[in-house]
Design goal:
The structure is a homodimer of 300-residue chains. Chain A is globular, with a radius of gyration of 20 Å. The first copy, chain A, has helices spanning 7-20, 37-49, 77-86, 97-100, 119-122, 126-141, 153-165, 195-200, 202-217, 222-234, and strands spanning 2-4, 26-31, 52-57, 91-93, 107-111, 145-149, 171-175, 220-221, 239-249, 260-261, 267-276, 279-287. In chain A, helix 9 packs antiparallel against helix 10. In chain A, 41% of the residues are buried. The first copy, chain A, folds into 2 domains: 2-175, HUPs (Rossmann fold), CATH 3.40.50; 188-287, Pantoate--beta-alanine Ligase, Chain: A,domain 2 (2-Layer Sandwich). In chain A, the strands form 3 sheets. In chain A, strands 1-4-3-2-6-7 form a 6-stranded parallel sheet, with helices on both faces. A 3-stranded antiparallel sheet of chain A has the order 9-11-12, with helices on one face. By secondary structure, chain A is α/β, with parallel strands linked by helices. The A-B interface holds A 7, 11, 15, 18-20, 22-23, 105-114, 131-132, 135-136, 139-140, 142, 161-162, 165-169 and B 7, 11, 15, 18-20, 22-23, 105-114, 131-132, 135-136, 139-140, 142, 161-162, 165-169. Strand 5 of chain A pairs antiparallel with strand 5 (107-111) of chain B. Chains A, B: Its EC number is 6.3.2.1. Chains A, B: This is Pantothenate synthetase. Chains A, B: It catalyses: (R)-pantoate + beta-alanine + ATP = (R)-pantothenate + AMP + diphosphate + H(+).
C-alpha cells in the first residue's frame, strides 16, 4: 500500500496508472478516517470490484459548522492505515488541510432542494462542503466507482444528483449500513458517547425496526409512523430528537402526513437525527418497493 | 470530422480514445457557435498543441438572464461546421438543451468574489451558468487543455480559479483577442449592430488604445485613465457605458482610484462594457508587468 500525502503526488500516481492501465477500473472510498467496520465494508467492496482501490482520509473543515465537532473529531492514523492495508487498499491518500485548501476556496459545488431538509436543515452549508470536497477528490482520483455508506443516505442522494447533473464519469455505489451486534449503526462519532448514552442510543435502531415491524402487519400513515418512532425514542431520557422524517429516496421529497405506507410508487426512507448531549447521531431505514415481494422492506 | 449530438455518444468516443491513446492530449474549445476568426484562432491553437481537438457549440440557457438575448442569439450551424472542418477539429459536439439538461440542474458550480464585479455585477447568475456548463463539458470531454479568448477576460479568470479550486486536471489557455482591421474586437454579437452603431462601436478599442498611449508617456492614476476612456466613449452618442474598470488580473481586484499605472506588482486589466441599443459589447486591454521591458503593455 502506497501512502500519499500531497495532491501532486496523488495526481501523478493516478496519471501514471491511467497511462499504463487505460482499461483498468479505479475504486474510491472517501472518508474522514477513524475507520470502523462500516468503512471496512466499503473498502472490501472497492477492492473486489476494481483493479485499483483508493482510500482518502481527510477531515474536511468546510463541511463542519462553526459550533460543530471539527476540533474534536476522532483521529487514529496508525490504526486506520492498518485497517486499510488489511482491506487491500492500494493507495491511501492523507492530505493536510493546506494541501486540500492552499488558499480559501472561492469555488463551491452546491446541490439545491435535496439539501434543504433532514441534516441539511440543521447543518447549513454542510452539504456544500461535502459536494465541494468530493468534487475535488473525484478530479484527483478519477474513480470508476465511489463507495458511500447508506447511514448517510442524504449524502448518497446528494452526491448521486451532483454526479448526474455535472456529468461526472463515476458511479456512486451506495452500501448497506453496518451495525453493532445490538443494532447501533456504526459511526466514528459513537466514541463520544458515555456508557449511559450508548445504552440509550439503541433506541434509534429499535424505533426504526419497530416501525418496520408495524408496517409488516398494517398499512399506516406517515404521521402514525413518525409518532410511533418519536414516542419510542422519547423513552430515552438523554435523547433529544432533532428530526424524524419520512421521505422519498433518492429524490428526498417529504411525504405528506397522510400518505399511507408502504408507499406504492417509490422507495421510502425513514430517517432520524438525535442528540445525546453534544453528540449527534443519525440512522435510517429504507423501505424498498419491489415487485413480487410480500413486504417491500429492506433492513439495510 | 465527427459530428456528435448526444452526451452518451461523446462520452463513449472520448472513453474509447483514452483507452486506445492513453498518452495522447485532448484540446477543447467550448463555444456558443456563430464562429468567427477569434474562435478559429482558438481551434487552430487547439489543433497545433494537441493530438485530438474537440469543439462544442452550445448556446447555454442557464448563463443568460431573463431579459438577455438567448432567443435571438445568432446561429449558423452549417457555416460553423465548415469553419470547424477547416480548423482541423476532430470532434464537433452540438447537443440540444435537452441533452445537456434532461432535467433542471439542481447542482451549480459557483465562483465567488471574482464574479461580483464587471460583467458579474450586471449579469447576476451569468458566471454560475458558465462555470456549471463548463464543468459539465470538462467532465464529458476530459480535455488536457481548454482554450478561451481574452475578450472574455473575466471568464478566463473565473474558470482558472474554478479549475485550481476544484483540482480539475485541465489547463486553461487564455488566447489573444482577435480584432477587425479597424480594431473592433470580434464577437458573435457584432452582427446585431446597425451600420451607425458599428461605426461608433470603434470607440471601445480606440479608447483603450488611447489609454495605453497615454500610459506609455506618463504615469497616471486609475481615476485619470478611467476618466479619459469615459470621455472618449461619450463622444459616441449611441454608446451607453455600463462600466469602465481597472482591476488586477487574474485576481480581479479593483484598484483604488489613486493607484498609479502602470502598476508595479501585478498585471492590470482595463475592462469596459458598453451598450448600443439592446446590444452589449465588451472589450479590454491587459497591461502586463514584465521585467526588463521598457513599457509593460501588451495590446492583445
Amino acid at each position: 500500500m502506497k501512502v500519499i500525502r500531497t495532491v501532486a503526488e496523488l495526481v501523478a500516481a493516478i496519471r501514471t496508472y491511467k497511462v499504463e492501465q487505460p482499461s483498468s477500473s479505479i475504486g474510491f472510498v472517501p472518508t474522514m478516517g477513524y475507520l470502523h467496520q462500516g468503512h471496512a465494508s466499503l473498502l472490501e467492496r472497492s477492492r473486489q470490484e476494481n483493479d485499483l482501490s483508493v482510500l482518502s482520509i481527510f477531515v474536511n473543515p468546510i463541511q463542519f459548522g462553526p459550533n460543530e465537532d471539527l476540533d474534536r473529531y476522532p483521529r487514529d492514523e496508525e490504526r486506520d492505515l492498518a485497517t486499510a492495508e488489511r482491506a487491500g487498499v492500494d493507495i491511501a491518500f492523507l492530505p493536510t488541510v493546506e494541501e486540500m485548501y492552499p488558499t480559501t476556496t472561492k469555488t463551491k459545488v452546491a446541490v439545491s432542494e435535496l439539501t434543504s431538509l433532514l441534516c441539511g436543515a440543521s447543518r447549513p452549508g454542510h452539504f456544500d462542503g461535502v459536494t465541494t470536497v468530493v468534487s475535488k477528490l473525484f478530479h484527483m482520483v478519477k474513480p470508476t466507482r465511489a463507495y458511500f455508506g447508506m447511514k448517510d443516505a442524504q449524502q448518497v442522494a446528494v452526491l448521486t444528483q451532483m454526479v448526474a447533473d455535472l456529468n461526472m464519469d463515476v458511479e456512486i455505489v451506495p452500501c448497506p449500513i453496518v451495525r453493532e451486534a445490538d443494532g447501533l449503526a456504526l459511526s466514528s462519532r459513537n466514541v463520544y458517547l458515555s456508557p449511559e448514552q450508548r445504552k440509550q442510543a439503541l433506541m434509534l435502531s429499535q424505533s426504526l425496526l419497530q416501525a418496520v415491524g408495524k408496517l409488516e402487519e398494517d398499512v399506516l400513515a406517515v404521521e402514525q409512523v413518525k409518532a410511533g418512532i418519536i414516542e419510542r425514542i422519547s423513552q430515552a431520557p438523554l435523547a433529544d430528537i432533532e428530526y424524524v422524517e419520512v421521505i422519498s429516496f433518492p429524490s428526498l421529497e417529504r411525504l405528506s402526513e397522510d400518505t399511507l405506507l408502504p408507499a406504492q410508487d417509490a422507495d421510502t426512507l425513514i430517517a432520524l437525527a438525535v442528540r445525546f448531549g453534544s453528540t449527534r447521531l443519525i440512522d435510517n431505514i429504507r423501505i424498498t418497493k419491489k415487485k413480487g415481494e410480500s413486504f417491500p422492506c429492506s433492513v439495510k
